[in-house]
Amino acid sequence: MPTDPTHDDLADAVGAVRRELELDGPVDRVWERLASAEGLGGWLADEVLVDVRPGAEGVVRDGDGPARPVRVEEVLPGRRLALRWTDEGGESLVELTLTPVPVPAEDDDASPRTRLVAIEIPLGALRRATATLAGPRAAALAGA
Amino acid sequence: MSGPPETAPDVGRVFAALADETRRGVLRRLEPGTSVTASALAEELPISRQAVAKHLRALAEAGLVTAERVGRETRYRAVPGGLDDAAAWMAGAGARWDRRLERLRRAVAG
Questions:
Q1: What are the tens digits of pLDDT across the range B29-53?
Q2: What is the ipTM of this complex?
Q3: Which candidate in B2, B7, B10, B15 is best for mutational testing of the A interface (most A CBs within 10 A)?
Q4: CATH number for the domain harbouring residue A124
Q5: Least CB-packed of A68, A135, B7, B62 within 10 Å?
């Protein structure tokens, strides 16, 4: 059930990698683990040196791998983080979006859960997609 | 920001070339090991020779097709393994996301 059409726009592009999962906890808590400067270093890569603010540039590194440049494109607290980085395939855009998982009205005791959609798309593919399906926001992210 | 390392394949270029359904159809028609002209392909497809030639040029720019002059003809041939880097990137990127998201799941649970 897509709650934000921009996901599927980007994910429909040829070459997009998309993952979706549900995490325990309310959106605010998941956001803290996902996207605070401290939280980001706990999962995105072995080493993460970048501020979480739009336009910030830094590096990420895994194991003995090279330091890869990363740039923060978009920060909507509790909602979305978008990054641009260089990996084995060239430059790509990463988009991480959180939405609360709806709780059935009759289920008062349900603990809150949060859906995360992670999309990575090579920049060349994103630029091509902006012409057809992804709209102005994607065009801005692609730096077209 | 700086671009990718010079050795990195630009898989985005390949995916961009494949984004067009008609162009994928042109690529599918190229049989391994054989070359073909735009005119011959156009007879099998519901598009003009000019349109076929345009798609073939786009595929060539993405490194998926090579063109060679034979007499007065231009003959096109699929590059063996032309899609390998792009397929490997998708598989690798998917596996890397699975690992990252498992770390995130543990961090959120902890």
A1: 998 889 999 999 999 999 999 999 9
A2: 0.87
A3: B15
A4: 3.30.530.20
A5: B7
